[in-house]
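--- STAGE predict ---
source: upstream dedup step, 1 unique chain passed
mode: sequence only
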Amino acid sequence: MEPEIALDLGRNALMMMLIVSFPLLMVGLVIGVAISIVQAVTQIQEMTLTFVPKIIAMVIAAVFFMPYLLGLMMDYAREMFGPMPIP
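--- STAGE serialize ---
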């Protein structure tokens, strides 16, 4: 395998990882910031308060985004395991 092909495969794998993880990470970030603002306003400093809403929101987001993410991963797997083009 040529180094250019290996670098291209690695770059594509990293981009796919970022694309697949982005929706769930953004949901976790938004919920975490919202809960932190509520905690700052109400002066409730309970550390465990952030976990349950974040987990619930991320599970809901995972169910919502799953068809799109699975489609992306299936296309990527077909591309990876399909026939290699002859240079």
